[in-house]
Amino acid sequence: MRSTGFFLASPSRQSMVMVVVVLLAAIKSTAAAQLSQNYYASTCPNVETLVRGAVTKKLQETFNAAPGTLRLFFHDCFVRGCDASVLLAGPDDEHSAGPDATLSPDALDLITRAKAAVDGDPQCSNKVSCADILALATRDVVSQAGGPNYQVELGRLDGKVATRAIVKHSLPGASFNLDQLNKLFAANGLTQTDMIALSGGHTIGVTHCDKFVRRLYTFKGSSAASRGPPMNLVFLRQMRQTCPLNYSPSAFAMLDAVTPTKFDNGYFQTLQQMKGLLASDQVLFADRRSRATVNYFAANQTAFFDAFVAAMTKLGRIGIKTAADGEIRRVCTKVN
After folding, report:
1. Residues annotated as binding site for heme b?
2. Known catalytic residue at 75
3. What span is annotated as the signal peptide, if there is one (predicted)?
């Protein structure tokens, strides 16, 4: 039987390890315990109404803010925890690095507006974190796009650090296989079912050609495996028109071409039809270990919504900051 360093440690070292483990568990438990659905009941009772109003107004101007905000929340939580570090601007900012370089300006503007709306209420000024505003705005864009309306846990603090160097390694890649996806999500306390449900957020998303062009053409030195799972041939020809070999860097396609502005289970139905643009999406149906869940969500929208809400709640608990390493920013783009 293989031994680990822990079991080979001396009694005194074992005790030290156990103390560290207990302390880390206590810190994590304390951070998670600060979240509650009525966190601002006495300090800013109108916070949800204020954020929802800003979301409604922005979506009336452009729907782009909906998928953009959902993506912004996911990227924030996966990189340094749900601490609004993705909003920080500066020489080491996250939102211009790697996968974050294509984060939606409309989503960033929505959070700026929501923050202004909240701070515009004298009772709420400088009492609500940018991280909580982002979490609420994410729920509201999902709901207003036709998705589930769920309760959001609140009480997050804003982080004081942004590190662009870790962005690329913290987020799933467009060519990830199921094992890579499960490993990354498991590292954040999320199950395979959580991962598949959160991937369903692509029902209102878009992706740029550079993320899936290798699935459309055979490039020198590329293999069948590098192109990912097979694609519906009619759909492939359509996508070649959207993304020719000399495509524009700004060219994009809808991840759910059937109902791109409606939060529904159409994304999973496109996977059944072999019309997933990203290899990391289509693999969810191609791999037998995850196919049953895709089929279930494709046939039962209520089940998808329930799983999505459960996964979003767990996602929102990642990396919660305590008073020692967090604050309530006066301006979302810079630390106090």
Report:
1. 202
2. yes
3. 1-32
